[in-house]
């Protein structure tokens, strides 16, 4: 047994073969089984397996994209629960994006933000107000609702508006640190929610607690994207863009400044990192991801009201980041996926299962303890357990370690190093470790 | 303007009640922060648990027939002592299990744990209550019904009880911190843990005692809240705790007298806003914005005077 495992670990062709077999098996079972959440989840698990294979990066991406674009939608299409699966997949995409945004703020820059859902709300309301008749209450020109064609512009608009709010929150917050920051952001999140809840008078902007309903669905080439399987692809494109942005940001100058600020503000400042700009950028970029997904969320649900943007949601996203591993991009993606699926499917399924057990008279579970209601319990317990025993998360963040010899063997670098500071090679060679 | 004057006495009374409650909860935050530099998010939930435990004890005593025969004051004391003891133990347990292992970890992690504890407590209380009565909103039997009416002003008896008990608790705490040996040890640990431990102060024990005292006060306040307002649910603690924390910041965190003053001030301001906000702004802002008001105060204080109204600015050591 050990021998086989070792062989698998060493041989990437074997890994590829096993992975393809696994994907084929799970997607086939998803096609054959009429309604099987387990098969769906197992198919999603293939992404994690893919991450751990030793294939070169480009082929990992190729396989991953193939699963996301073809295998997953195609194999889910066969059953009656098609929209349900796609709905969950879309939600996963939305939450992964938000968690990646929060990961920049909390994980990379080390600024604890407990009101993150506010930016999501800002994005959602930006689209919601203009894609319903609501905007005609206060806009002196134009006819509302805007058609679904404007959705694509609003994605960018939502991104900028949320970034603006991020900066607005950031400016006053820069003076406070650590736990005070957490409280201020929490207060900010609550303020945004209360304001949206009460902006139905004197001018009715947000329609207050009633919320905005029948928001125009997005439209492309005259086709209305009404269903989850259509929105899924929109989310997928935005998500890929966000992952690309995050990955390139992580190792950029800005990304390294974030980490420096996280580790020690004063030392970072002494090394010439502009503290204000770096922190504001973290807030703005993190918020912009959330804002974009807010727009998509509003279009997908076609209905938003302030109760979708509570503190519980903010904590929810924080759990995703902590569970996956603060600062680790693959970790956060995993964490967000796990929490969303737990929320959207597993808890529901468990509740149904317990209900069927209690109607069959095997065990009786009081209604108060049905898993759907125990959300806070599970999240609280997860937060505590992970903070206590695995504070680095499921996939801990890795810093790139430069190989000194490889680094030196690059021609230009070598020359520069030799001409500038020959005795100090060590320091140059080991940056970033 | 006339409306503001007319409502002022009632606003003062309501504001003082709420302020007293904020003040005692703020004490719990401030004591823990003074010693560990940790915002104990779960403190609001301890207050909430206190409200529920107190109500349960009260209902139990009513069932035994004690309430009918004994004076209300005695019952109140009994409930306060039982609840305070239990929530004190709860606070100590939380510190022991969730915070102590992380004392050396980064603050971010500890804070996240505190949020976790707070969620856990909310849900545990919810499902215990819900399994008992199929509904998590509880009505507390009123111990001090009736009210005084002085020239159109409505003063409930429970208001007097809340104010008096709150003031007594604050005096007791002042005495405990400033005049007893444990209080001395607490102040020493707050100043410098390492030096205190060199002076043979048992730091862990002092921290436990701090949590016990803070949580007991918080739980007892929960009882007062339940008796005065009559309706409680498992989610009252979080926002109320947040506002109490605002009060603690307002008065200068780590400063016990500051927390009392900050709580009173915040309670009065909030009640004033609730009564008059729409009148002053000519209907522009409804009284729903009173929570926004409290948080705006918090943010303004943190930005312009982070040491609080009564605190001294701390110099950051590198």
UniProtKB/TrEMBL annotation, chain A:
Residue ranges, compositional bias (Basic and acidic residues):
423-433
Any one GO MF annotation of this record: branched-chain amino acid transmembrane transporter activity
Concerning Pfam families, the annotation shows: BPD_transp_2
* Localization in the cell: Cell membrane
Alphabetically list the UniProt keywords. Cell membrane, Membrane, Transmembrane, Transmembrane helix
Residue ranges crossing the lipid bilayer per the database entry: 12-31, 37-54, 61-82, 88-106, 111-130, 150-171, 178-196, 231-249, 280-303, 315-339, 346-365, 377-395
Gene Ontology CC terms, in alphabetical order: plasma membrane
Domain of life according to the entry: Bacteria
**Record InterPro entries:** ABC_transp_permease, LivM-like
From the UniProt entry, list the residue stretches annotated as the region Disordered.
Answer: 412-433
By its UniProt entry, which CDD domains does this protein fall under?
TM_PBP1_LivM_like
Q: Does the keyword Membrane apply?
A: yes
Q: Does the keyword Secreted apply?
A: no
The membrane topology term of the UniProt record is: Multi-pass membrane protein
| First and last residue of the signal peptide | none
Q: Which PANTHER family match?
A: HIGH-AFFINITY BRANCHED-CHAIN AMINO ACID TRANSPORT PROTEIN BRAE (PTHR30482:SF10), HIGH-AFFINITY BRANCHED-CHAIN AMINO ACID TRANSPORT SYSTEM PERMEASE (PTHR30482)
**UniProt-recorded name of the protein:** Branched-chain amino acid ABC transporter permease
Provide the species name.
Terribacillus saccharophilus
């Amino acid at each position: 047994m050990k021998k086989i495992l070792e062989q698998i670990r060493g041989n990437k062709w074997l890994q590829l073969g096993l992975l393809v077999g696994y994907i084929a098996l799970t997607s086939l079972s998803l096609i054959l089984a009429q309604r099987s959440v387990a098969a769906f989840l197992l198919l999603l698990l293939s992404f994690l397996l893919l991450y751990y294979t030793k294939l070169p990066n480009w082929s990992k991406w190729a396989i991953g994209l193939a699963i996301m674009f073809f295998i997953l939608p195609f194999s889910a299409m066969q059953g009656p629960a098609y929209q349900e699966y796609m709905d969950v997949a879309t939600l996963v995409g939305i939450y992964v994006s938000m968690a990646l945004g929060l990961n920049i703020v909390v994980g990379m820059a080390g600024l604890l933000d407990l009101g993150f859902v506010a930016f999501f709300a800002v994005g959602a309301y930006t689209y919601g107000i203009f894609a319903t008749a609501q905007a005609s209450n206060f806009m002196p020109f134009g006819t509302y609702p805007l058609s679904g064609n404007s959705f694509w512009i609003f994605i960018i608009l939502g991104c900028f508006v949320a970034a603006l709010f991020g900066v607005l929150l950031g400016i006053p917050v820069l003076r406070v640190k650590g736990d005070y920051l957490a409280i201020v952001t929490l207060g900010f999140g609550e303020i945004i929610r209360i304001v949206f809840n009460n902006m139905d008078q004197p001018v009715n902007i947000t329609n207050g607690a009633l919320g905005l309903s029948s928001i125009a669905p997005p439209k492309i080439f005259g086709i209305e994207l009404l269903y989850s399987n259509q929105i899924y692809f929109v989310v997928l494109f935005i998500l890929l863009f966000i992952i690309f942005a995050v990955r390139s940001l992580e190792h950029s100058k800005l990304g390294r400044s974030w980490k420096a600020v996280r580790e020690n503000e004063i030392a970072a400042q002494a090394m010439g990192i502009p503290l204000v700009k770096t922190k504001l950028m973290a807030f703005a970029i993190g918020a912009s991801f959330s804002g974009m997904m807010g727009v998509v969320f509003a279009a997908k649900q076609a209905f938003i009201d302030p109760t979708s943007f509570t503190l519980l949601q903010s904590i929810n996203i924080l759990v995703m980041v902590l569970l996956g591993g603060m600062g680790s991009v693959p970790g956060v993606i995993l964490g967000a996926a796990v929490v969303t699926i737990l929320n959207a499917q597993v808890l529901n399924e468990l509740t149904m299962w317990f209900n069927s057990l209690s109607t069959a008279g095997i065990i009786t579970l009081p209604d108060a303890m049905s898993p759907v209601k125990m959300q806070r319990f599970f999240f609280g317990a997860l937060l505590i357990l992970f903070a206590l025993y695995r504070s680095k998360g499921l996939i801990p963040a890795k810093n790139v370690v430069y190989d000194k010899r490889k680094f030196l063997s690059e021609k230009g670098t070598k020359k520069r190093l030799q001409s500038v500071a020959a005795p100090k090679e060590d320091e140059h060679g080991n940056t970033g470790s | 303007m006339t409306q503001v004057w007319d409502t002022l006495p009632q606003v003062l009374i309501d504001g003082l009640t709420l302020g007293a409650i904020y003040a005692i909860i703020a004490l719990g935050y401030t004591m823990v922060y003074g010693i560990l530099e940790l915002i104990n998010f779960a403190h609001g939930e301890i207050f909430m648990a206190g409200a529920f435990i107190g109500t349960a004890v009260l209902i139990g005593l009513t069932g035994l027939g004690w309430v009918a025969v004994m004076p209300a004051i005695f019952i109140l004391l009994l409930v306060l002592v039982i609840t305070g003891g239990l929530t004190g133990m709860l606070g100590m347990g939380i510190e022991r299990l969730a915070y102590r292992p992380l004392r050396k970890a980064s603050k971010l992690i500890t804070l996240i744990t505190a949020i976790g504890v707070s969620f856990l407590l909310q849900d545990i209380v919810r499902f215990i209550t819900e399994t008992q009565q199929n509904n998590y909103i509880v009505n507390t039997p009123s111990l001090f019904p009736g009210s005084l009416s002085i020239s159109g002003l409505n003063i409930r008896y429970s208001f007097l009880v809340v104010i008096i008990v709150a003031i007594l608790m604050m005096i007791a705490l002042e005495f405990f911190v400033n005049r007893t040996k444990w209080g001395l040890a607490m102040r020493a640990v707050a100043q410098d843990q390492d030096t205190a431990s060199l002076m043979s102060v048992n730091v862990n024990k002092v921290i436990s005692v701090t949590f016990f005292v803070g949580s007991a006060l918080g739980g007892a306040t929960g009882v007062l809240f339940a008796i005065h307002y009559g309706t409680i649910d498992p989610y009252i603690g979080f926002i109320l705790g947040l506002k109490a924390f605002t009060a603690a910041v307002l008065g200068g965190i780590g400063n016990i007298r500051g927390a009392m003053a900050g709580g009173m001030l915040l309670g009065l301001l909030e009640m004033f806003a609730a009564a008059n906000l729409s009148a002053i702004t000519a209907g522009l802002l409804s009284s729903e914005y009173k929570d926004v008001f409290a948080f705006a105060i918090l943010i303004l204080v943190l930005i312009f005077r982070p040491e609080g109204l009564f605190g001294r600015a701390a110099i950051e050591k590198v």
